[in-house]
UniProtKB/TrEMBL annotation:
This is DHA2 family methylenomycin A resistance protein-like MFS transporter. Pfam families: MFS_1 (PF07690). It is found in: Cell membrane. Gene3D superfamilies: MFS general substrate transporter like domains, Multidrug resistance protein D. PANTHER family: MAJOR FACILITATOR SUPERFAMILY MULTIDRUG TRANSPORTER MFSC. The chain crosses the membrane at residues 25-46, 66-83, 90-109, 115-137, 149-171, 177-194, 215-247, 267-293, 305-327, 333-352, 359-386, 420-438. It comes from the Bacteria. InterPro entries: MFS, MFS_dom, MFS_trans_sf. It comes from Pseudonocardia hierapolitana. Coiled coil: none annotated. Its main location: membrane. GO terms for molecular function: transmembrane transporter activity.
């Protein structure tokens, strides 16, 4: 596409959507799929990783959480970087770095080295996600075509959840835990080939990216995670320091990462709380159940991946139904119903270690259905409630809070025994459901 076909709509550089945009949309969606896949695909590989590297349970938790900690922290600035440095440029840097770092991860000699590489991988993932959304907005200026493109992009969330445990099981059975990272390399290369370079889209905007705030947020999340994993109360000290620095630098910034008006908007607070609770339950259940399936129940990685299908399949098919319910009745009821299911599912799993697989399947089905009802509706809640001009940062904040919930879920539930871990997820979702109902009633 020639640069002369570029035009501007509402101050945003765009290009007319043509058939040439379809491969680019596939490449953009593939990168999004790749980033989300890495949040779950490694789960079923953890026992093999522990045998291969001799890592402890705490190191297994950190292999998972190192990615989500930096992913969550740098998502806050990923959108600002795409706006100020150019969406196409940031996307290509992020995808290229993701593929290269995955290759290096496959050769990690120890769990400690892998943890450091996974942290860098999370930064690359945080560059890919917001810039991919910005690219779609620029490639499809027509609202109707943009809505369809965003629908295809968003559908990769459920697909990644379905593919994660199952793909991980197949790869580990074939080539061990290192194969989980090697598969990222050709997928990242294919994404770059399909996306290509869209001339004229990389026009930097004024303002600065709040890198100091991102580092402060990373310090907070990492300290809290270490405090839980290692049962180290002193970890609260750097967490408090990081929080104070984040607030100070945000107040002094002319373009804050999290605008105060966004946090004060009605519905945003409860939406963020619900997003964190959903991912806490989901990530914590995936981590705890994987260890039980391959430990106490002696399943192979592939069998463990198949056992998760009752959870993962609804997350792929359910969002279409949820979108229709939200359009007809609003997002309040789907969120509340989903949180109730996310309370019942883990509560049922608490009795599973002494029961047969149908009990596990029923609990996982309730959780998967709850996730498919809640997350799509929460995006509508938070973005619709955001003040004008903050929708992009609202979306980034929701994703950051969700990944924070996932980090805490793995850290907390990974340190508990199976029954108490599942009850922790049920209690978190139940309290959040109650708070959500009260907030909707007051509004």
């Amino acid at each position: 596409m020639r640069a002369s076909t570029v035009f501007r709509v509402g101050g945003v550089t765009t290009v007319p959507a043509t058939r040439a945009s379809t491969p680019r949309l596939l490449g953009i969606s593939l990168a999004y799929f790749l980033v989300l896949l890495d949040t779950t695909v490694l789960t079923v590989a953890l026992p093999d990783l522990r045998v291969s590297t001799g890592g402890s349970l705490a190191e297994q938790q950190w292999v998972v959480d190192a990615y989500t900690v930096t992913f969550a922290a740098f998502l806050l600035g990923g959108g600002a970087a795409a706006d100020r440095l150019g969406a196409s440029r940031v996307f290509r840097w992020g995808v290229g770095a993701f593929g290269l770092l995955s290759l290096v991860c496959a050769g990690a000699p120890t769990a400690g080295v892998l943890i450091g590489l996974r942290a860098l991988l999370g930064v690359a993932g945080a560059a890919c996600l917001p810039s991919s959304l910005a690219l779609i907005t620029q490639l499809y200026p027509d609202p109707a075509r943009r809505a369809r493109a965003l629908g295809a992009w968003a559908a990769t969330t459920g697909t990644a959840l379905v593919a994660g445990p199952l793909t991980g099981g197949v790869l580990v059975d074939l080539g061990g835990w290192r194969a989980v990272f090697l598969v990222n390399v050709p997928l990242a290369a294919l994404s770059l080939v399909l996306t290509g370079r869209v001339g004229g889209l990389d026009r930097p905007m004024s303002g600065r990216v709040g890198w100091r705030q991102q580092l402060a947020a990373c310090l907070v999340l990492a300290s809290v995670t270490e405090g839980v994993v290692a049962a180290q109360p002193l970890a609260v000290v750097p967490a408090v320091i990081g929080a104070l620095l984040f607030v100070r630098w945000e107040r002094r910034s002319e373009t804050p990462t999290v605008p105060p008006a966004l946090l004060r908007a009605p519905g945003v607070g409860p939406g963020l709380l619900a997003g964190a609770a959903v991912n806490l339950a989901l990530a914590g259940v995936l981590f705890t159940t994987t260890l039980l399936l391959q430990g106490a129940h002696h399943l192979t990685p592939l069998q463990a991946g198949l056992a998760f299908l009752p959870l993962t399949l609804p997350t792929a098919a359910g969002p279409v139904f949820t979108a229709r319910v939200v359009a007809a009745r609003g997002p309040g009821l789907p969120v509340l119903t989903g949180l109730v299911l996310l309370t019942a599912g883990p509560a049922l799993l608490a009795a599973w270690p002494e029961a047969q697989y149908p009990v596990l399947a029923a609990g996982l089905l309730l959780i998967g259905t709850g996730v498919s009802l809640t997350l799509p509706a929460l995006v509508t809640v938070v973005v619709a409630a955001a003040p004008p001009g903050t929708a992009g940062r609202a979306s980034g904040l929701l994703n950051a809070v969700r990944q924070t919930g996932a980090t805490v879920g793995v850290a907390v539930m990974g340190t508990l025994a199976d029954g108490p871990a599942f009850l922790c997820a049920a209690l978190t979702s139940g309290v959040t459901a109650l708070l959500w109902a009260l907030s909707r009633r007051r509004r």
